[in-house]
């Protein structure tokens, strides 16, 4: 089918016509095998009514499509008997006139091969992804991943609404009144996916709702109540109808696929009902309802798109686009969405990821329909750092609160060829909606299965507790804690930095040797090699700067800086001997990597002397004492940064203003400070027992030595007690709760 699509485009068909034509062919292939019409009727037509050289295939298919768009009573009496056997399809599937495509023998052979496949064996739950893959060679190489998407879709729809419906059904097994009431609830549901892509969310939800309705009818029949089963089942007799679904998709091709996939799953549901009850609505002719709307969801009125009902379900996985990657059009979408929202005034909504626009639009609809529910798959950055600091007051100001959440896990997007991304799922609704049950799903391994807990409260950071937004500070909240900032930034094109060979040359030159200093970035500190040095020329004598070893490098630095698009860097071309940002402390300091792997239980840090120049990828703590380092190497610190620090992909990204300064550390007397010092010394000693191992080796969860784990556990026990715990706490959630108590939060 992919080859056929490429051939259609190559024959002169534009993308629009090729898309429509291929959807029609795919519909016919599926209908051939699934009982929509006589089995293999389309295959018979291709084999008996088209030439083997493919010369008339385009014309014959065009004629067939026209016939399927005509009611039987309006067809010519002289119509070919094979064409006359095709039913009237309607539903606008075959309505738009197309130019006649050109085919050849190879293209016809490919279509015949496609006819031989059993298309009914494909679940419509993945039908959309397979259709989309037809247009993407990269996705065709990764089709196996699409078979897992339903599992991830269930992570959204089950806690959002379907688990509750299933529980009600189980509880009503012997109560006909309750079963009828539940079927009535199904009839009230209205589902919207405002970024529906190929419709997978809607397909899975519709399929399962129809299946639940059938289970209700069968159970009523078993209990002797057939009042819900009419003599002749029409579409209007269904509680769950296609017109109760709504999707919005910006691109035509996936929108057409979504519409087709929903028609096919509707047919499957009808067949299952026919098999179970002996009666069901006819699939054909299709009605002309519009379920999937093509357009920019952020510029549309969702209240007009989704049919009126207070039992509205909004779900999906909007585009995974970070704030810094948004196009000008997407930035304009952001402004369009947030400008009229009063709760957004004064918030930094322009710094939010693109998905936040869908949260805001959904919350607006919730204010109109207070019993509605929402759940979106989002990149995990939305629940962290600066993003969450904006989202918390935004949703609260719009009268919404979190109901359930999936913490970070790996999701494979429905979009063909899309890379696996680190996601969360956030379910929320109006604060007015009664009888809520909070649910939290945590992933010890982001590729593994979740562990569910039932928290008393659930906040937007996806942990048990009230909403809390730490204030971004410019100095430590607690007196006595050291300052923190990035290290120095060379912006030198690499010309002030020295590898080992250049260092050995430099130290042999008397005029250069005094200025050779060890240079450390986060990678150097964690990986240990290759070692690097730099020319630190802050106090260099002018005559020394003229030495050829230095002068040559300074010329290259100036040249590199002049090419920079940043004005301040260009200005530093006149000072090539200096780093563009000099933040080197005058004394010793403790350092943490600015970015650290999500997999580490602790972010490893290290002390350095002032002669070691810290690079800008380190966060440094000038004049830090060992007991300060103990706090920064504790799980209490990790509990804070995992929640409030920013993220680079899924890795922790430290910025002191949020990740360190606002922490309400306990006040420690000299005895406690000495206890902390003893504990951190044990950590350092445990590291020194493995002199050949790097910090990356030592803090790899799979390789971390038991001695080092024990030392950190002892340190954690001491820090936990300093925060008021009676003993070692079991989780970072418990630690965060303690921190909040210290900060006088609810």
From TrEMBL:
<feature type="domain" description="MmeI-like target recognition">
    <location>
        <begin position="471"/>
        <end position="668"/>
    </location>
</feature>
<feature type="domain" description="MmeI-like helicase spacer">
    <location>
        <begin position="16"/>
        <end position="94"/>
    </location>
</feature>
<dbReference type="GO" id="GO:0032259">
    <property type="term" value="P:methylation"/>
</dbReference>
<dbReference type="Pfam" id="PF20473">
    <property type="entry name" value="MmeI_Mtase"/>
</dbReference>
<keyword id="KW-0808">Transferase</keyword>
<dbReference type="Pfam" id="PF20466">
    <property type="entry name" value="MmeI_TRD"/>
</dbReference>
<feature type="domain" description="MmeI-like C-terminal">
    <location>
        <begin position="674"/>
        <end position="744"/>
    </location>
</feature>
<dbReference type="InterPro" id="IPR050953">
    <property type="entry name" value="N4_N6_ade-DNA_methylase"/>
</dbReference>
<feature type="domain" description="MmeI-like DNA-methyltransferase">
    <location>
        <begin position="170"/>
        <end position="441"/>
    </location>
</feature>
<dbReference type="InterPro" id="IPR029063">
    <property type="entry name" value="SAM-dependent_MTases_sf"/>
</dbReference>
<dbReference type="GO" id="GO:0009007">
    <property type="term" value="F:site-specific DNA-methyltransferase (adenine-specific) activity"/>
</dbReference>
<dbReference type="InterPro" id="IPR046816">
    <property type="entry name" value="MmeI_Mtase"/>
</dbReference>
<protein>
    <recommendedName>
        <fullName>site-specific DNA-methyltransferase (adenine-specific)</fullName>
        <ecNumber>2.1.1.72</ecNumber>
    </recommendedName>
</protein>
<dbReference type="InterPro" id="IPR046818">
    <property type="entry name" value="MmeI_C"/>
</dbReference>
<dbReference type="Pfam" id="PF20467">
    <property type="entry name" value="MmeI_C"/>
</dbReference>
<dbReference type="Pfam" id="PF20465">
    <property type="entry name" value="MmeI_hel"/>
</dbReference>
<dbReference type="InterPro" id="IPR046820">
    <property type="entry name" value="MmeI_TRD"/>
</dbReference>
<keyword id="KW-0489">Methyltransferase</keyword>
<dbReference type="InterPro" id="IPR046819">
    <property type="entry name" value="MmeI_hel"/>
</dbReference>
<keyword id="KW-0614">Plasmid</keyword>
